[in-house]
Amino acid sequence: MSQNASPPAGSDDRPIVKSRSVDIVVLLMLLALACLLGWDSARIGRSWADDGPEAGYFPFYLSVLMGAACIYGLVRLLASPHAESEGFITREQLWRVMQVFLPTLGFVILTDYLGLYVASFLLVTGFMWWIGRIALWKSVLTGFLFTALMFVTFEIAFNVIMPKGPLEAAFGF
């Protein structure tokens, strides 16, 4: 990613959130996932049958291990409440992450409505022009060539079914 795309004015290097807080939230989410997986594995069978392990046997015990690891991590974090925690992310770092995340989220949403190829063209062109600060005509040309090469490779050479939109339909694909 280019250094030219700058964060909003008035940003600083103070962390938005501390690593400890993020660790606790992630551990709680993983613990909830372990409980869900354990419950579902127990529901489909977590014991040993006459012909071997039931479908949920190994997933159940893996979820128990995952839950135990989460509880261990939470106890360790909560046992030292006064421990110094470093910053997890600064405003500038969050700005850079959002510069990639938001266009990528837009790409995923647009793929459903416009198809993979048009959405890819917009993503490549947009990244080159906005983040890379490359001339618009070069960005459009590169986006078009990339998308055309991708279309020829997947649709024509390998006949792979990809999400298509109204433009491809207009050309009979």
Rounded to the nearest angstrom, the radius of gyration is 24 Å
Q: How far from one another are the termini?
A: 34 Å
Shape: flat
Strand order of the largest sheet: 1-4
Strand content: 5-15%
Helix content: 55-70%
For the report, how would you describe the main beta sheet? 2 strands, antiparallel
Q: In DSSP terms, counting alpha (H) and pi (I) runs of 4 or more, how many helices?
A: 6
Mean pLDDT: 91
Low-confidence parts? none
Q: What does this 3D model show about the protein?
A:
The protein has 173 residues and is mostly helical. It has 2 domains: 74 residues; 80 residues, no CATH class. The strands form 2 sheets. A two-stranded antiparallel ribbon has the order 1-4. It has a two-stranded antiparallel ribbon with strand order 2-3. The model has no long low-confidence stretch (mean pLDDT 91).
In short, what is this structure?
It is built from 6 helices and 4 strands. The protein has helices spanning 19-44, 57-79, 91-114, 116-131, 136-157, 166-170, and strands at residues 15-18, 48-49, 52-53, 87-90. The model has no long low-confidence stretch (mean pLDDT 91).
